[in-house]
Amino acid sequence: MDEPPEEYETPYPMTPNPHDQNDGQDSYTPYQGYSGDQGTPAHTPGPGTELYGDHYGTPQQNLGGVQYDDQGASSGEEQGYEPSPAHHTEPTSSPAQDNPPSPALGGRVTRARLRNANQPTPPPAPPPAKRLERDERTTRTRRGGGARRTYNENDEDSTLYAIIKLARASLQTVVDEWIEAYKVNRDSALLALMQFFIHASGCKGKITQAMAANMEHAAIIRKMTEEFDEESGEYPLIMSGQQWKKFRGNFCDFVGTLVKQCQYSIIYDQYLMDNVISLLTGLSDSQVRAFRHTATLGAMKLMTALVDVALVVSINLDNTQRQYESERQKTRDKRASDRLENLLTKRQELEENMDEIKNMLTYMFKSVFVHRYRDTLPEIRAICMAEIGVWMKKFHQNFLDDSYLKYIGWTLHDKVGEVRLKCLQALQPLYASEELKGKLELFTSKFKDRIVSMTLDKEYDVAVQAVRLVISILKHHRDILTDKDCEHVYELVYSSHRAVAQAAGEFLNERLFVPDEVASVQRTKRGKKRAPNTPLIRDLVQFFIESELHEHGAYLVDSLIESNAMMKDWECMTDLLLEEPGPNEEPLDDRQETSLIEIMVCCVKQAATGEAPVGRGPNRKQSPSMKEIKQVQDDKQRLSEHFIGTLPDLLDKYSADADKLVNLLSIPQYFDLEIYTTTRSEASLDLLLKRIQLITEKQHDTEVLETAAKTLEYLCTEGFAIYTRCDVQRSTLIDTIVNKYKEAMDEWNSLIEGEETPDDDETYSVVNSLKKVSIFYSCHNLGNWNIWASLFKDVEEAKDGVTSLPEEAVKFSISACYFAVLWDLHRIEELIEGGAATDDAIMESKSRLNMFVEVMKAMLTQQASQVYKEEAYLVVCDLLIVFCSQLHTNTHFALGGLVYEPDKQLQSILIDFIQNNVFTYEEDEELDEHSKIAELHKRRNFLASYCKLIVYSIMPTSAAADVFKNYVKSYNDYGDIIKTTVGKAREINKVNCARTMVAALTSLFKDLQQDMRGIRLSRTMEEFTSLKELAKRFALSFGLDAVRNREAITVLHREGILFAVAQNEMVEDPTGPPPNLPFLEILTEFTNKLLKQDKRIVLTFLDRRISMGMPSSRGEDWQPLLLYRNSLVHGETDQPIVTSKRAYSRKKKEIIEDEMGDMDDENNSDTEFMPGLNLDGKKKKQQRMKQYKGDRSMSPPMNQFNATTESPINYSVDNLATSSRPQRQCARFSFCYIDNFSDDEVA
Q: Region entry Disordered: which residue ranges (predicted)?
């Protein structure tokens, strides 16, 4: 490696490169400016103010005296660099006789030129003889005496590029070997390095010794450009795969390691860096993307490495300055004059080193960065932004200035998200540093609005980084953010993207939820000390109320729960609800209490499950880590211990408030039930069960009852010590519910039998008793209470129209019967698992199922109440899912007897319900907006229930035709459901799905014809255009894999053609087109999904079916056929202008084969239409071809579209090609056929 000079240990003058005396006398090779007419896509001449155009404002706005203007492009007259020959010229005289150059010669005068100018340069010691022999081969000895590595550019495996790409040695070893080779023969070593950059760009061109010696870098780059193979468009930096990803990292590390190992002398020898910078500057200005990308990355990493060197030099300079000042302040008798002189010399040399590094950095910044930061390639722009951020952080004395910051500010408007992200990542460490915040005030005031607006970026990664940057701005420039700026970020806590929401939650913590360490201690009315988080939770509740998004409390909690401990401060929350406020506190109003309970329950749910809210979780479910599992267990235990004691009091306090009870009653569902036993809290359990029973008896709110039933179901989980206690209480509660139901029904029936009219209280009692039976039946088996007969009797009477029960009561009776059937199935499964006899239970369950479904079918077909129909429809759909053929797969075959498959009648009934209740497009103007949303939600549920039957193959795919045909018309309301159904149907069977699509299209086409009432269908009407749009949607659903969809697409065309060419029984004009012929224009939307060979098969199939026609076929009515045929012909070519005999005979053979196939009968042709399936037809065709070849006098039959016969439909050559050899309309593609045959085939 390049060892540190002696003066780093002892105070002697520095000698930059003592290894070769030629270094001090070689003429200077400057950086090539490449400042002529810029031809790259990146550099558009013009001032920096036009970087983003008027849309982004004026970047040159003068702010506080600092002009945000673009740095001028570098030229040959950069400061400290004067134009001179670009290539290195070896001195003609011996080094001992040369004198140091003077400034008058026009070269750059630096301390490397003038160091020790008055002292004679000692001649170098001659190397050993063996070393001289090896120098001729430009080899070097490895450490440890191993074999020498030779950078032989003729051997691809020994080049620097191959060594680094294949990682044959550590980068440290590779660099050290290269440095030793450089010390022996720097021309060869430099050539190897230059070749590395060329190869790393994907160019296989080679730079020879002669080229390096006699050609300027610009000429070499032009030569390499000519040899570059750009056909593939790939090069190492963008190629995929682990090897290339590793190479990119090794490439960057190699440049950094090379500069680091050469930092003490070689980088100052005015040869290595001058040539490398010149080459990279030229390559970065190339039109070739690979050169530009690779060279820019190399140049930026080179600048980063030079920044690291500058930091080392800066530290040494500071140390030397301190030593010098310390020595100078000593008294004359204690001062060492030699040491003082050496320190002064060392300081001057370090200052010169620093100046030279700054010159390099300045030159490269102006020559590379200024042009490439706005390159057309986003990867290059991202590289520039990433590296300038590193420079600003590491070498802020030089780079953290508004003249450099402006480039980041302007690029914040970049169109590519990755570039914007790099800008924000570059700014993040700058704002996070307390030391640097003073240098960012002007930049912040200029670009603050843009940074805040980027929190709403469409790229979520950019938005997350923008929020974090705003947090840093808030910490160090708190006054610069306005309330409006903060509100933009506040709203993001409700974002559907979790990372953005959690970043916004961190901002909320920094802005609003800051603990007041000097606040006075607050106490409750009875003197209990309030928790420190009390004011913060009050603020959280107020924030939740003001956001007016009360249905999204789970989103707010998820945004804050991982970053703020107050979200799990259960004691603080329950104290606010249960404790009376102190003398200096304001009590919570009803709205605040409701909001606090909502937030508290969301916190409980997420803490106990560790699951994010619905719609915000990760796209892919990842298994939680052991740390996360442990955290969830600990949180669940703590909240269980707390709420076991406090929840009964909360239920007692809010027992009359349904909104609060819905949330509070759900808390036990997240308990660790073992805590009741371990903490001996059975008394609290009894109290909780008693509260649930009282609430169930008093409350009639549906949500409250459903939550109470689910909570009781969880508490009665078998396997826990508390099961027996909870089961007894459950039985008592169900007894109460059933008894009240029986009492209400007895009283109702008595009134009806006495021909009395029940009043509102009696009606209310019946409805609510049935509601509780239905709701608790959904979670608990009420079979032992024997209420099936009573419930089913009420349903039957409602079906027959003889019931006097209210509609809502009958609805709950239907629901209860449905759950009764499900519990019967569950009981049978338990009997099977226990090994008990199940025959009687299965027969009873089967009987109940059949009777119940028959009653539901009757309700759907009769003129019954709409409420009955809707409930019956949902029940039937769900029962078909539960009792489907999958029961056959059970280990006990007896369950197969319970399978219920829908017959044609039931399928028709369900389809009619969908058509009448879902696909209705007349809005009820009397409904308000909320009611309209609720109605839409109900209809979507109806449609989803039906589509599930298709997706789970309970009903055939063809039953979805009536759903598919509404895809476009009802896209806004049901598009997502129908799209998913189409996709699932295609996964089940592509061919059947294609047939269903055709059925949907033909059904709509027939409806359209009926609406026209015998008038010829107009292809320009809106309904026909909508039909074409539906066909286009169907075509897009097949994706891009034409081979996989081949059979389905060909079947779709077959079905469509058969429909289009079908004739009515009563044909008025035998020469006229078929009535459904316009359907071919609809079918055209699917043509681009056909393979090329299948287009010809479809075309032949079409020609066989269109047998009617007269000269009138040229009319407008026949245009759909022309359009369809042209779409099938598209992709074929005209006959070649020049062809050989062999080519002609080959074509003739193809024509004969195609036309011989037309002799097949109808059935065989239909089978042949399926590609790859008709083996018999293929054999018959081969036999006929043999006959034809044996008897050349037999002419092949021509089909009706052959140009050699009289065509039934006279298509012009300009519009249509023959079916045997379709022609492209544009003759300019005919050359494609000529290339298929060699010249020797021409007769």
A: 1-152, 1157-1198
